[in-house]
């Protein structure tokens, strides 16, 4: 019968042409997977088609409003410590807890002094009126306490050291009801995905929908953004002495000055040696050096004439390793006028890096810290998807197998291309959902 002989032939031809079309058109085809023209950047990492995109979840953005409870159980202040983005993370979490407890929120305490030796409070960094307005319907926020409560210091409930699961309603609500005004520092270990939807939505809105920089800070940041040559890539490179000391990794080939700075920052944390050091490194625990970063950039076909903004402090070591290859690197200290810059503190400088990084054409992080998580989330919120976390693990595993040169570049390209396409490595917190595109 004719159909029997024609059908398979037709199917075969159809399948073959479909295969060819896929192979030829897909950016992951064998023909284009070798980065072609390095300088034109024609097939750089950003040209890879994303199969998974992170977007704000619908239950948060388009939620049916559930009326706030008429009765407030008391006032909660969230006390935040550490760097700017760590404080922000804990603050957002605290908003979720306050909602969970049907409490009224007081403006948080941003206790930066211990870390930055300064006193930048919440209102020095974020626009308070905007925050209050954006939280309308999610949680009640007050600037001032009623006089009878304002007289006393809040009763302190510190959850920050608690490990494992515990219930905020069980362990914090009694103090709130008793004292009517408490301060809390949320526990990092707590799983936020177990909060009821209202509380989660309040957390998400607080973190990503309600925080913008103060007008003065935003003006300064916009000025900086304006001064950066376009288009540009913002690079958060973490290779400071404290970071390296903390990582307990050893690096051969460092300059005497870097070695000295690391030793000074080390404290009790001695670096791993021998087999333990190799295992540690292979698990991706070691920060990438500027050298390694430049190498991976080349593997990703990021042209060496790309404008790069270094979103980092002034303590970066061995930065020549990057600058000798990527020659258009700019920093904020070079772009902002001297006096302005000198008057700025850690928090405000961190706010500038944050602002530039959520507005850049692309963002690359060499680590997975609080700033990187916050920036990646805000970029997803704004629909900017050229965000990439370099894989320390892939680099360590491949080099431990003895790969180098072109072979190493090709393997790094494949590893990162896969991560980028699948939205991996930038796993966003509970407020974002992955959409298959
Ligand atoms: C918060 O209020 C809602 C109703 O508005 C109620 O169902 C819930 O049990 C309250 N939670 C607490 C901890 O008071
Ligand atoms: C912290 O600030 C105080 C007062 O401004 C100053 O005396 C001190 O030297 C500073 N400490 C450091 C480590 O910068
Ligand atoms: C970076 O690479 C240069 C040239 O290959 C080398 O001299 C230097 O020691 C390297 N630095 C680090 C920190 O590996």
From TrEMBL:
The annotated pathway is: Glycan metabolism
| UniProt entry tagged with the keyword Protease | no
The topology of this chain with respect to the membrane is: Single-pass type II membrane protein
What is the predominant subcellular site recorded for this chain? membrane
CDD domains linked to this entry: O-FucT_plant (cd11299)
| Gene Ontology molecular function: any one | glycosyltransferase activity
Q: Pfam families recorded for this chain?
A: O-FucT (PF10250)
Signal peptide positions (record): 1-25
**Protein name in the entry:** O-fucosyltransferase family protein
Q: Which organism is it from?
A: Populus tomentosa (Chinese white poplar)
Q: What is the lineage of its organism?
A: Eukaryota, Viridiplantae, Streptophyta, Embryophyta, Tracheophyta
